[in-house]
Design goal:
By secondary structure, the protein is of the alpha/beta class. It has eleven helices and five strands; from the N terminus they run H-H-H-H-H-E-H-E-H-E-H-H-H-H-E-E. A five-stranded mixed beta sheet has the order 2-1-3-4-5, sandwiched between helices. Strand 4 and strand 5 (250-252) form a beta hairpin. It is globular, with a radius of gyration of 27 Å.
């Protein structure tokens, strides 16, 4: 009887130890563990010169498309901006420069899920080029090493809609705005469309917006022999894109 009791005690001990081991391996994540996991997923680094040099323009487009998917799905990357800001003091090696409209509803870095040091951003109403913008692009590409130039229009662009509606800015005392509208006007005239050519027609309006971005790309190539040559040599790409404010999606054109 004593031997049987000892055997039962021994067996119970083995079962207990085994149970404890299983419980240990399947233990629920604690609040402390969750915090550690979150911190591990927070991006603290910035793009380095070596990483920038290894990227091709096509790879950058692919990464931006993936970042845009994150934006659409409300899955933006968590970043330690304090740490990134500190590291960025050493230097910057952005992968691209984006020319966007000034519209406050177009948060360029968020649209592509990017952070400090990732891209240059130039903004002007109607995302048109001028001497200063093109010069900034030459700096970004020929000097700072960026390999992609994006001209990004957006749906419901106010500058383009004012141009379509033939707003007389000079009569309102806004001569500079009138000059800007004059820069966009060719895109309206060059857009072939058989339907209603007014801002009440979203299809026509968005087509003009897209054509305006493509026209800007053409003008950039003409105004900058340096960037045109770099593009011919495959060192950079100059492309246009359209941001849909309702869906958040960026569609790249084949210019």
């Amino acid at each position: 009887m004593r031997k049987l009791t000892l055997r039962l005690v021994a067996l119970s001990t083995v079962v207990f130890l085994t149970s404890c081991q299983e419980t240990k391996t399947t233990a629920p994540v604690t609040l402390d563990n969750q915090k550690e996991l979150v911190e591990e997923r927070v991006v603290k680094s910035i793009l380095t010169a070596e990483e920038q040099a290894e990227l091709t323009p096509q790879e950058i487009v692919g990464r931006l498309k993936k970042g845009n998917e994150n934006f659409i799905n409300n899955n933006l990357t968590q970043r330690d901006h304090s740490e990134q800001r500190r590291k960025a003091m050493i230097g910057q090696f952005p992968k691209a420069i984006v020319l966007s409209c000034v519209d406050s509803r177009v948060p360029v870095e968020d649209v592509f899920d990017l952070g400090i040091g990732d891209i240059f951003v130039a903004r002007v109403a109607g995302n048109i080029e001028n001497e200063d913008i093109v010069g900034s692009m030459e700096y970004a590409t020929a000097v700072a090493g960026s390999k992609l130039v994006i001209v990004m229009g957006h749906t419901a662009c106010g500058a383009v809609k004012s141009t379509i509606d033939e707003v007389d800015a000079k009569a309102l005392g806004m001569n500079s705005l009138a000059d800007l509208i004059d820069e966009i006007q060719p895109a309206v005239k060059e857009t072939e469309y058989e339907g209603e050519r007014t801002t009440k027609n979203a299809g026509f309006t968005n087509l003009v917006i897209n054509n305006n971005a493509m026209r800007t790309v053409k003008n950039i190539r003409e105004q900058s022999p340096t960037m045109a040559k770099m593009e011919d040599e495959g060192k950079i790409m100059i492309v246009s894109a359209l941001y849909d404010m309702e869906s958040g999606k960026v569609a790249f054109n084949k210019d």
